[in-house]
Amino acid sequence: MEKANTRKPRIIIADDEADVLMLMEVILSREGFDVEVSPNAENLMDKVTRQPPDIILLDVRMQGVDGEAICKQLKTDRKTKKIPIILFSANSDLEQIASNCGADDILRKPFRADVAREKFNRILAKSSFGLIRRFHS
Length: 137
Known about the structure:
The chain has 137 residues and is an alpha/beta fold. It has one domain (10-131): Rossmann fold. Helix content is 47%, strand content 20%. The chain has six helices and seven strands; from the N terminus they run E-H-E-H-E-E-E-H-E-H-E-H-H. The protein has helices at residues 18-30, 41-50, 67-76, 94-101, 113-126, 128-136; strands at 10-14, 34-38, 55-59, 61-62, 65-66, 85-89, 105-108. Strands 2-1-3-6-7 form a five-stranded parallel β-sheet, with helices on both faces. The chain has a two-stranded antiparallel sheet with strand order 4-5. The N and C termini lie close together (11 Å).
């Protein structure tokens, strides 16, 4: 009998606000996700290419960094283009920014934990992670 896939879905959160990173890490870890945080864009790119996550939660406006440009870079690179990206911001133009860069979804700041969980689970269900889970269950 084949053993079920019990690996937790891995999420990388990129945000330059330490309190936001800590809060998201706590909330998503409690929801059963393997969470890795990235306080800057350089660190993010290294983490994504070293061990691709199941989802990237990307702040649109980090100090000195354009999250939209990072999203475009990830979505045009053949190694990372299939990784779902959720843009995370209080920016009123978030939908347009997501459309411009090819992001898979958005999460507005401030957010509710149940809304975040629902978005992550919906994206995971459509991804290869969800297919692997269904295949093994």
